[in-house]
Amino acid sequence: APQALTTVYWDSTSTDVYLLVNNLPKPASDKQYQIWALLDGKPIDLGLIDNEFFVDQKRLLVKAKNVQKAQAFAITLEKKGGNGAKPAGAIYVLGNL
Fold this sequence. Notes:
The chain has 97 residues and is mainly beta.
């Protein structure tokens, strides 16, 4: 998705992570976006983006799980419910710090 764009707000002191979903295609009903932090090439699960966001877009920011250290953030498209320990789906957004 070359037009996919998300802004990550990460407070490395409080470890809070928020996403502003600027442009992500609506996922199929059996898929869900999963948020990752990358540290030393290893993914850290930061949670899922609720598919209802793409229907109503009620929320401006999406709260992710907190993370203490990260070198990059990514969003992948996974099976609904996510993929746990490591991504298996296509990377839609990847950004280095």
